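Sequence in, structure out.
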Amino acid sequence: MPVSYSRWDRRDAADRNAMGAAALDLCRAMRAMDGVDDSRFYWTGTDSLVLLTHADGGVLAAPPSPQAAAANFALGDLARQTSAETWLDPSQGMEMYSRANG
């Protein structure tokens, strides 16, 4: 099952409480999408957090729901996304490699 990882750093003028609330709203919007098993955020320091979302196959590659997109922009107003990755489990990685090499 793929995992989406993103790291967010608070903008200088942003309120930490508002940033946490925006991250929670994004997680809730993600969990409401079909195929998403879990979405949570974790503080990694006083000014940064990480979001982890576990979802089925193509859900993470598809456009987000309108609610998830709005929540993503709301978080973006308060924090800068400094990195984002999608992690594949070993079987998915091997499947992708096999398709690429026919």
